[in-house]
Design a protein that fits this description.
alpha+beta, globular, 6-stranded antiparallel sheet, 16 strands
Amino acid sequence: MSKTSNTPNSTRPILPLAIGGLILLLGGGVFADYWSAKPAGIEAEFVGRSGCIDCHRDQAKAFEGSHHDLAMDVATDETVLGDFNDATFEHDGLVNRMYRDGERFMVHTEGPTGKMEDFEVKYVFGVTPLQQYMVEFDRSDDMPEDELSRLQVLRISWDTKAKRWFYLRPPDVNDKLEPDDPLHWTGIAQRWQTMCADCHSTNLKTNFDPKANRYHTTFSEIDVSCEACHGPGSLHVELANSKSLFWDRRYGYGLTKLKGEINEPQIQTCAPCHSRRGVLDGNFHGGDTYFDHYALELMSPATYHADGQIKDEVYVFGSFIQSKMYHKNIRCSDCHDPHSLELKHKGNETCTSCHQHAAGKYDVPSHHHHVPGTAGAMCVNCHMPHTTYMEVDPRRDHSLRIPRPDLSVKIGTPNACSSCHVEDVRNELDPSTREKVDEYADWLRLAEMGNDEVAAAIAKVDQWCDDACDKWYGEQRATPPHFGEAFAAFRAGEPDAVDAMTSLVTQTNDKVPAYARATALFELGQSGVADALPVARKVLKMDSEHPLVRTAAVTVYMTASPERIAKELFPFVDDEMKPVRNEATRVIIASGAVRLLDATKRSQVELAARRVKETLMNTADRAGAHMAWAALAEQLGRYGESIESYQDAIRVEPNTTGARSNFAELLDTLAQSNGPQAEEMRALAKQLRAAELPLIARDAGLVPDNAPMQYRYGLALYQSGKYSEALEQLEKAAELDPEVEVYHTAIRLLKEKIAEENEGEK
């Protein structure tokens, strides 16, 4: 018989209660740890790559030696690749010498005065396929070590593959550049801060003072480092080193989130340095919305062919957002390692690693119709043809398009097939012409410049390629409508082209990319097409429309009446997208519509105008920024501010035309109602025009076939009282472009003026 105690065992319920309490306590602690968060509003700071390497050694190793890592550096024995062993190089009659002076790297070349001088190379720029060299100017003795003054990039460059010096000419400039030319290596077009710095260093602050005309430029790292893409890292480092079990509930990892379901965060992080754009503000960090910080340059005829293929150097983004790959959620890192920047696969595997279709689908002669292993069998040569820029740097078109020889035959656009097969007719060219064409882009340029021989050769090859595609694909061949057809027709002034262009604007992104639609709407507005305004109004009613298209729609309103602008554009002064609200503000002011607003709305526009000025002053080292603000300030009645801005424009770019003429016009206007100072104002206006005249003459001489420039020169001559010379220039403009009525009107009025004066002398 077993014994059962009737005495309660008090220890049995205590243990589970204790364990439960402990679990509850631990759970509460874990939850409290999770729930605790850094306070809102923390702004992370740049800490440098040294704060990243300990935890991210594999990424740091891949990054080391990459183009980002070597984007810029101090000139040392380790970083300088060019031959400075007393080497000489000649161009345009100048014998340049590259040599060493102790530890310093020196270049003996033409300076800003036109004399041969010695300059120290302070920094190197890039690594392959070329390296460039930079000289520092205007540095004062009291300047802090961590600040840079004006840096100028030498045009004498080092070809790192061929191991040779070469002179990097501006496109289509064959003559010697004079020292006062903006394109001279000491000019503003070769200034590091203006053209290069923002994308070759991390956390760059230009810090230009337009009053002193001096730079105090800083950066956190000299090259493109971790935080250029991932954003400032101080919060991430702090969170990583904390004792918490979790990342922060409010800030996550404390870094930009570049990985996710959609491609936009990553693509828009790469886009600022891989696009041709203007800066709206200098506060962009990786992961931010690109279009809230940058204004992407549209597809102008100078930069893109009618069908969107690259023409000038446009840096990838504008091409990629036209592609089906972009709309299929493909991102940069699908092809490129984000740290080494190298392709993830070799050869056609870069493409076939994703395009894994049935055997015999793509990477076989039945698809590409070329011998395997040859250039014609490479996916990229057909779908991403290259153009060489900077003489030695081939860049591929990232629109990833199917070659369209049929469009080449129809509208004269390039195609990848002809880019190779023009070589088949090279020997048919005159020997003197043959010497001028190296790659396909040279053929295209000569044809565009009016070389009938080259144009005929290209047309012959285009037709051959088109016939070959017909033979290969027969009735299966796809030749769908393309937006390039509408652009080509509109730019040629063909009938019904306006309808085709307006139809493009209202298409969906999957049929016509937003980039093309925005360009179409902008060009319609610039041409003064009446149908553009109703389309623009329709676009602005769609909040979900792409900011590029909405911004172009706002620009179209410059063709509307001030009354309509005041009524319909005012709501967009506070639009959620910066480019839209900036452009709405600019149009309201520039059109004079601001004067039709009531006091409350005018105050809102004037407040918004300050934001527009901040945007313009991102390029305060360019005269155009100050001229643009001077014109807006004048419309707002802020004449003192306008005068100051014109003076700033003249100070920062004294050899640029426009500022003096516009300043003179303002002074003439003010003199009409400013009795005591009227004569002084008119005298200053006369001095300004006299100083401007040789600059306009220079510009007119540089582009003798440009009708607007000849017309502008004619007006300047007229305002200077040189009537006979003015008449000659105006007639030249009318001869170059007889369709422009204003040229003929100016000629008629000037002839009447000359006749009146001749009659008066009798």
